[in-house]
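Notebook p. 47: complex prediction with 3-acetylpyridine adenine dinucleotide.
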Amino acid sequence: MTAPQSTQPYDVIVIGAGFGGMYALHRLRKLGYRVRVLEAADGVGGTWYWNRYPGARCDVESLEYSYSFDNDLQQEWEWPERFSAQPDIEKYANHVADRYDLRKDIQFNTRVQSAEFDQELASWSIRAVDGDTFTAQHLALAVGNLSLPRVPNFPGLDQFNGRWFHTGQWPKETIDFSGRTVGVIGTGSSGIQLIPIVAQQAKQLYVFQRTANYSVPSMNRLLTPEVALPHKAQYPAWRERAKDTPFGIAGHAPPEKFAADDGFEERQRLFETKWKTGGNISFLYAYKDLLTDQAANDLACEFVHDKIRATVKDPKVAEWLVPNDHPIGTKRLCLDTNYYETYNRDNVRLVNVRQAPIEAITPDGLRTTDEHYHLDDLIFATGYDAMTGAILDMDIRVKGGARLAEAWEHGPKTYLGVMVNGFPNLAIITGPGSPGVKSNMISAIEQHVDWIADLVEHMSRTGKATFQAQAEAQEQWVKHVNEVADQTLYPKANSWYVGANIPGKPRVFMPYVAGLDKYRKICDEVTRDGYRGVSIN
Ligand code: N01
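Predicted complex, structure tokens below:
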């Protein structure tokens, strides 16, 4: 591809104006390519545009969960809190869009319906729901990993007379729950953040829990200059250090000991220190074998079980809240502020829908197999069709050839999480097989976009028109992703990492859990080896 001579309207169409799409636009445009971003929402931010539910907050610390590509940006921007709340992250996304004049190349309110690659023309035709069409040599998907919300198919929802919401499609206006009886279905990261806030407002809150989840305190606090300024003084070096870590986060020394190296007292002291430090990485970094050895993991589980029992006053409720079906950390470890304490409030009741499942939504509430609950409002914190949902929501195909939905019928297959055999010039920013969701997402995004941009530059220099994953390299990558996961406890959980939350979805381990550092090295080697595993023609 030679950008200046291309006859196509765009060199690259990017779908999505979250952090991935914004950085892709900035990076590729700076290299001289004609780029257009198509975004379904009316603003930037992606996940942080849609997830405006009360309590929405990032679980990676603000000074790390931010772009590193421009030192002036990271020096000038001021984060108010240790873990940023949604409004602050959305504000940052808007600041970035303004600062780099991104909006002029983003078309908002444009949801993509289909994309078809024409082999002869070596170009993609992209069609939006409203009928707009675009052509480009390359198509970059920056659609997010948790962006297709899932509302379970309960009978009767269409008859519900109250208000209902999904955390991932929260309205822009402030929703006031004062004086109302509210139901929340779901106790994953979203539910666990939202429940304490809604409990403070509502007259009565029912939490419908099917599976108890692990949560550790965030210990969120204001980010004072005493903390921010020394960090900023060594920001570039800090970012470099982060590159050598599995999560793309420099603030935690990797563990050196196995859990069995310590006696009971020592271990309790360490877990307690980690608990008080706050944050999920801090806790999971207690010992190096917490995510690989069941016995080690059990010790961490027991510590958290005791914390729950010590916090929740009603012993029956406490037992329901004690997770018992997965090793800690094998589902995204939730971060909370006063989650378990919330169950001590008089206006909060935990309903065990594992014991008495939800039967139906009724016009004035919700019925389980043993009781009817009157509700004014119902909140679905029921998650997403993760990693593949938003991609397969579009009809992506090759003219006269395969559809991506068919190619992924038995589970997604990619090379390095960024490209797919049989689908030329398709780049996925943190697709299945990428370490994105298991790391600091913004660090992963920057690595992916830089790597893809280098590939596009390489094609320009060598006068090539198409790239795609080689079939064998893709098979090997999928195998490698699964082998790495099989060396850990992750596959033991029925998590969205394996698609277990979506009925009928093929059970395939999707994220690459060896770490962003190892992944980065592999990508660099692939480049050094002349794009090993990639067909460039
Ligand atoms: O979704 P989830 P989420 N009947 O899938 C329940 C990221 N995130 O939006 O486990 C009853 O984790 C379901 O129960 P069960 C983070 O990566 C990050 O909370 O299937 N219940 C579960 O309790 C996270 O992992 C942040 O039995 C039903 C819940 O709904 C990911 O997003 C904040 C049900 C879904 O939990 C997704 O989190 C928020 C049914 N039919 C999100 N169907 C931070 O950065 C589903 N459930 C802090």
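Notes: The chain has two domains: 9-44+102-148+386-536, 157-238+249-380. The first helix runs from residue 19 to 30.
Next step: compare against the earlier run before touching the bench.
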